[in-house]
Design brief:
By secondary structure, the chain is an alpha/beta fold. It starts with a strand and ends with a strand. β6, α8 and β7 form a beta-alpha-beta unit. This is SAM-dependent methyltransferase. InterPro entries: 4pyrrol_Methylase_sf, 4pyrrole_Mease_sub1, 4pyrrole_Mease_sub2, rRNA_ssu_MeTfrase_I. Keywords: Methyltransferase, Transferase.
């Protein structure tokens, strides 16, 4: 195995590894002893799911969150500098894409260390694929403002970009606030604007549906505890 910083995708929910990750990923993971992770407990659980025979206690985990300083991250990469491969694992999906990891990769690139992204599920890419919206130009905005006035303003700004730039707009919300988000979209966007709701992607209860804002009214499913991604287009 080539020495590198491997970006290791994980499942988006409680789905089988075989359904969403290639067997090559398991081969790579089995050769790594140092992991930079968003959450140590969930990372350990994921690794055991990949390989039940893995010796978790023989591995070293470095926590990566909003409190991790650039100096800490640079120190984390010392095993890689010394010739040992390392892996980056986020809570769900692909590290460094709408998830922690970008800062690690940036430092590795500055140090001219090899970075290898592995194939795995990304809710952003999968939702664009299934929406029927423009896949040539799209933008992901993460979480929108919580304050009602600011959120309404942001939604209208994103909708304007849909029509002015022919660009698909994507964003997310905390699951328990999904219905409030949908209410705000239906209240603030044009009746003809299309909204795709992509929920529980790759999981057993996967739900991906595209309708106009007008057609969504009165037909919103129960999504209060399900990870969702929302897409707007014309």
């Amino acid at each position: 195995m080539e020495t590198a910083l491997y970006l290791l995708p994980v499942t988006l929910g409680d789905t089988s590894i075989e359904k969403v990750l290639p067997s090559y990923n398991k081969e790579i993971i089995s050769g790594i002893r140092y992991f930079i992770v968003e959450d140590v407990r969930s990372a350990r659980r994921f690794l055991k799911k990949v390989d039940r025979e893995i010796d978790i206690d023989a591995l070293t985990f470095y926590p990566l969150n909003k409190h991790t300083s650039p100096e800490d991250i640079s120190g984390y990469l010392q095993p890689l500098v010394g010739g040992a491969s390392m892996g980056v694992i986020s809570e769900a999906g692909c590290p460094a894409v709408a998830d922690p990891g970008a800062d690690v990769v940036a430092i590795a690139q500055r140090k001219k260390l090899k970075v290898v992204p592995l194939v795995g599920p990304s809710s952003i890419i999968l939702s664009v694929m299934a929406s029927g919206f423009n896949g040539q130009s799209f933008a992901f905005h993460g979480y929108l403002p919580i304050e009602p006035g600011e959120r309404a303003k942001k939604l209208k700004t994103l909708e304007q970009r849909v029509y002015a730039e022919n660009q698909t707009q994507l964003f997310i919300e905390t699951p328990y606030r999904n219905h409030k988000m949908i209410e705000d979209i239906l209240l603030n966007c044009r009746p003809q604007t299309k909204l795709c709701i992509a929920a529980d992607i790759t999981c057993e209860g996967e739900y991906i549906q595209t309708r106009t804002v007008k057609d969504w009214k009165g037909h919103v499913p129960e999504l209060s505890k399900i990870p969702c991604i929302f897409l707007l287009y014309k």
